Amino acid sequence: MIKSSIFRLMTVLALLTAFGGKARSQTYPVTIRTTVIPPVSPFFDQMLSSITGGRLLVVVSGGNPTGAPMQIKLVGTLERLSPSPFTVSLSTSFQPTQPINLQAGIPLTLSNDLLEQAFGNFTPNNLVFQDISLNDLRDGLNYKLPEGTYRVCFTAYLYNDIGYVRPISDPNTGCSIFSICYKASAPQFLQPVSGVDIATDVNVVNPAYPLIFSWTTPHYTCASALPLLSYTFEIHQVFPGQTPTDAMNNPPIFLKQGLPTTLFPLDTNVYRNVLQLGQIYAIRVRAATPPGAVNTAVAFDNNGYSAPMAFQYGAPGGSITRGGGSAPQGGAVTQGGNTQNSQTAQNQPPQNQPPQKDSTDSTKSPVNANPTAFDSSADCGLKPPSDSTPTAANTNLQGTALTIGDFKLTPTTITRNNDSTYKGSGTIDWKPLGTTIKLAVVFSNIRVNKENQVYSGLVTSSTAQPQFQGFGSWNSFAKSSGSQLDQLSGAVDNFLSNNKAAQVVSQITGSTPVNFPIGIDNQSMGGTPVTLAVMSMTFSPKGATMSILCNINIPEANGWLSLAGTGFCIQPTGMKFSQGTLLLPTDRYFTFGSDGDSLVFQGSPNADSANGTYVSWAGDSLSAVVAHARLSFPKSAIVREDTAGNSLDSAVIAKLGFRFHQWDDWVASITLPRFQIVGVKGLSFLPDTIFYDHSGKSNAPGFKLPKNYTGFSGTDFEGLYVSDMKVLLPPDFKTFNQGKNRTAFEAKNLVIDSKGVSADMIGTHIIDLSDGNLGG
After folding, report:
1. Alpha-carbon 128 to chain mean position
2. For 77-107, what is each residue's pLDDT tens digit?
3. How far apart are CA 749 and CA 475, in angstroms?
């Protein structure tokens, strides 16, 4: 009993000795910084190769303090953290044929050959597999990693060190966390029929020119961005007694390969005999990675095929209207003023009709003529015209200036519908920066009174590219995944960059109608230029609004925050943004820093900024990003504990609220649960005043580093800073009358950064020896 008490006392005294001064990591002469740039190929033997997009950046620095070259070798370790951990590492029996010569003060970026050498050149006998076998990774002739969250680490050793016993770089800092993700959903049709199940009743699709076919973009099971995809679209005729699935065995009557977008307008003027009135057809589309793509390891559901969907093309004996004209009755098809009998074409058996491959460039498709997802309110408080008497039926409105809210609409094509509404296209003048821009617009249901005023209905912007259609309402942004928003943002950025003279407001000249998106490049945030992308505009008698996409660069995480907003009211002259809000539609996940900290920016799918990330305004200008986020610290540094003082195998997650106008300049006040330092069992920390410093220009209020701290000092420090905290001693260290309460004392100035955990802690008069209780 006495021996046991003495042992416990010595253990506690050892702990107090360790923390009486500064708790700090061992100093290593070599530093390794590892960065993974996604997407990462899942094939094990290609992961570090530049050929297939592994894109791993490893920089080794430091060296011999004397300045003499240091001969080193590297050990690579690949660890899956979740869902089922396993490890692949270099065998300690492997010795490289040549050392790596490290010059002091000259950072060395490792070549792909050296990276592969750190994994024994991917020779199975040079690797050690833990909790997984080589056969579990085999995929044909290659080795394929299962999906999950991974960490890759590199550790340096002296070249002549036998057995890899004494590391000369910190094994915990030369790491980077990344995700392997390659399973993706299959596309599903949106137009002219939608759904993932085959309906028992076949929908009738009204004939149109062109007939729009569109489908969803596949998405990964994780938050990564898919590589560029191409699509194959096919149409098959459905014969009596067949299901749409059966019809897929019939020869296709139309086939279009290599489509770059999720929309295809079938030109029924050019392909006038493909679809016949009253016939039933089945459609299918397949997604694939095009030849030469960086990451071709995507595993699509259903091999990339959508569910086949069926539709009936119009009614038997009906008519097709082409080019906006009215068609005669009695089964004739009107095409540019010429009438032909369609019965002969309808009776041709499709089995004898070879597939018709479209040789036209589908990327030059007509602009969006029927936008369906725009902000339907367009309400900025204007009072609509009181006169609701429709203009006379025989009135020619083409070229006539019509008033809609505060704007003037000039129709270039306009046709009166049977219900006295009008459809067509035209232009609206907008003068945002001093030069008048003619906006290309379309409408399908506006009502015009005798004073040439639009008193009901909507006029919407015309879209330049199919992939940008539909992003006019908040729901269209909020239902998109983070990777889909990244794809949209990248496509918009490329489109605006490649068409500055025609699409960016400061450079647009002339009277050519401008389609959307449009770039607004007179904005800045903290002195950094920001280009806002106007995705759409909607005009009504009550006002005019626009939807905006804004990208904020997060360079350290190699990613973007894609914020969006709708309902921004606009005027014929100038721009005012204060009425709307730019929000992050969905949660975004980033990994940054040498320690692999994971930061989640919280989204606002319901357009509520209370707990989401958004952009604040100063007057009518961008001011800062207001972030609500969650920060996860690596379990190699600190872990959570329960109320009884037991450490948990759980990462410490902090809640942050902060503002920034430059990513490298922010300090956040955070809340943090009680935690323990890894390797110091039983010593608990209850932090009080906590800051996360991510600024090279300023520090947290009251910032003070621990004594003898050897890391970055002054404003260069970046990491977690705990100003005040309570330290709880192990449960055995107490007094006889203390009960279950743990002994505690106050401490200050704890930091967690790339150097590890550092703190100044001293406790005096904690327990009187007269009533101290150490195991009895």
Report:
1. 35
2. 999 988 889 999 999 899 999 999 999 888 9
3. 46
765 phi and psi angles, rounded to 5 deg: 55, 45
Q: Which residue has the tokens 């390794």?
A: 32
Candidates 574, 572, 521, 514; CA nearest to 550 is 521
Closest CA to 69 of 22, 103, 96: 103
Task: Give the containing element (helix H, strand E) for 343.
Answer: helix 343-346
Q: Say which range, 161-170, 359-368, 549-558, has the weakest mean pLDDT.
A: 359-368
In this structure, the strands spanning 543-554 and 528-540 are antiparallel
Q: In this predicted model, what pLDDT tens digit does every residue of 362-412 receive, in sequence order?
A: 333 333 333 334 445 678 889 999 999 999 989 999 999 999 999 999 999
Give the angle subtended at the CA of 540 by the CAs of 435 and 606, to the nearest 5°.
Answer: 100
Pairing verdict, β 719-728 and 667-671: unpaired
| Residues 402, 454 contacting (CB under 8 angstroms) | yes
Q: How far is CA 428 from the centre of its chain?
A: 34
pLDDT band per the 50, 70, 90 thresholds, residue 319: low
Give the pLDDT band of residue 433 (cuts 50, 70, 90).
confident
Q: Count Cβ neighbours within 10 Å for each residue of 162-191 and write b for 16 or more, e otherwise.
A: eebeebbbbbbbbbbbbbbbbebbbbbbbe
d(CA 741, CA 729): 10
pLDDT, position 422: 94
Q: In 3-state terms, what secondary structure has residue 242?
A: coil
Q: At 161, phi and psi to the nearest 5?
A: -70, 115
Q: What is the pLDDT of residue 325?
A: 33
Specify the residue for token string 């008033």.
403
Cα→Cα distances 305→236, 385, 421, 454, Å: 15, 51, 41, 45
For residue 628, give the 3-state DSSP assignment. Answer: strand
Q: Give the mean pLDDT of 149-169.
A: 89
Contact 207, 225 (CB under 8 A): no
The token pair at 50 is 């530049």
> What are the helix and strand counts (H, E) for the chain?
8, 49
Report the alpha-carbon distance of residue 659 to residue 677 in Å, rounded: 29
User: Of 688 and 408, which is predicted with more confidence?
Assistant: 408
pLDDT mean over 612-641: 79
pLDDT band, very low/low/confident/very high, at 695 (cuts 50, 70, 90): confident
C-beta separation of 556 from 690 below 8 A: no
For 663-676, give the DSSP string: TT--EEEEE---EE
Going by pLDDT thresholds of 50, 70 and 90, the confidence category of residue 627 is confident
Question: Angle at CA 621, nearest 5°, toward 383 and 404?
Answer: 25
Q: How would you write 704-732 as a 3-class SS string?
A: CCCCCCCCCCHHHCCEEEEEEEEEECCCC
Q: Give the H or E element holding residue 59.
A: strand 56-62
Alpha-carbon torsion 403, 407, 412, 414, what sign? negative
